[in-house]
Design brief:
The longest helix is centred in the C-terminal third of the chain and has 34 residues, at 209-242. The protein is mainly α. It is elongated, with a radius of gyration of 27 Å. It is built from 13 helices and no strands. α5 runs parallel beside α10 (183-205), α5 (100-123) packs across α11 (209-242) and α10 packs antiparallel against α11. The protein starts with a helix and ends in a 20-residue tail after the last helix.
Length: 335
């Protein structure tokens, strides 16, 4: 395609579209119809230029022109409570359900690794001595020690808020850093697994593993599931950068990135629940079986929410992405 000839042939249409956009709402019916037609033609022109004769300056101008026209044609849409309800009942659970092939293996492998680290530390005194001095280990693992008092060392409300903030940050890091070829996600996940494994190993070596699990399981089931979902989604995002599938890399990353952003909001709500359990249930005077039962019930409710609502939403065509009307226009490209 001769770019100069193409520009000469269509510049008047682009200038006319720009003029109509500057008119704003002061358009007649005929001018509004003309604006829509010019918008569609200019979008096609942009696609042709991008695929056959890319010119940075011209592409930038037409991209801005098409974006302004699209905003004028489609209009701005404000989020409503209906959008929030749709996100909680369809969008978020669908996104978690669709990514289950990533976060379920992540959860299984992480749990096995934590158990292996715990066994290794518990069975090898020389490893324990490398972690801390014997007196310090006794202070951590003895009855009324640091592992037990950690959950009651601060007022419940402030402790729950602190836990929620820390866990939400870790989940957000997994989701965001997945774009960097998965490596930062693996590191964040390993740090969490290592901390859990160290606790298992040290408390088991002191013969108090049941106490440790009684403190961790009430909130840890839901909390770790949220972290595993975030890590699995981050890994999926990183793999999309490597293998975008049938889409262009830009389109595939945009789709997965929007879904990951929505999951960050949803997982923050899940971690808020686990933070409440950690702040108010874990250090409470309830029997161990009752505290663990609350944690199991919260975990079962989340999994039912994902598999029932999420599965139903996916079968109905939901992907966890934003509504089609809120996405950027995806222009055709040359094969």
């Amino acid at each position: 395609m001769d770019l100069d000839v193409f520009v000469t042939a269509h510049r008047a249409e682009w200038d006319r579209l720009d003029h109509l956009l500057h008119r704003g709402r002061h358009l007649t019916g005929a001018e509004a119809d003309e604006l829509v037609a010019l918008y569609q033609r200019t979008a096609t022109h942009l696609s042709l230029i991008q695929s056959t004769a890319p010119d940075p300056a011209l592409t930038t101008r037409l991209t801005q022109l098409v974006a302004r026209a699209r905003a004028t044609v489609t209009g701005a849409r404000r989020a409503t409570w209906r959008d929030a309800a749709r996100f909680l009942t369809a969008g978020f659970p669908a996104a978690v359900y669709r990514s289950r092939r990533w976060w379920i293996p992540t959860a299984i492998l992480s749990t096995l690794l934590a158990a292996l680290i715990g066994w290794w530390i518990g069975a090898h005194p020389e490893v324990q001595s490398a972690i801390a001095a014997p007196d310090e280990l006794r202070r951590m693992t003895r009855p009324g020690g640091e592992y037990e008092t950690y959950y009651s060392s601060h007022p419940a409300a402030s402790f729950a808020a602190q836990v929620w903030t820390n866990n939400a940050q870790a989940a957000a890091m997994c989701l965001v850093l997945g774009a960097f070829l998965c490596l930062p996600v693996i590191w964040v996940l390993f740090v969490n697994v290592l901390n859990l494994g160290v606790g298992i190993g040290l408390m088991s070596s002191a013969g108090r593993l049941d106490i440790f699990l009684g403190l961790v399981l009430p909130h840890g089931l839901l909390e770790l599931t949220a972290v595993f979902v975030a890590a699995g989604t981050g890994l999926r995002l990183g793999w999309t950068l490597i293998d975008p599938g049938p889409y262009s890399r830009r389109t595939a990353m945009a789709q997965q990135g929007r879904a990951a952003l929505g999951m960050a909001i949803g997982l923050a709500l899940v971690l808020f629940v686990s933070g409440l359990i950690e702040g108010f249930v874990t250090p409470s005077g309830l029997p161990t079986w009752a505290r663990i039962a609350i944690g199991v019930a919260a975990e079962a409710a989340f999994l039912a929410y994902v598999y029932i609502l999420g599965g139903r939403a996916v079968r109905a065509g939901q992907t966890g992405d934003v509504e089609a009307a809120d996405r950027s226009a995806e222009l055709p490209v040359a094969a």
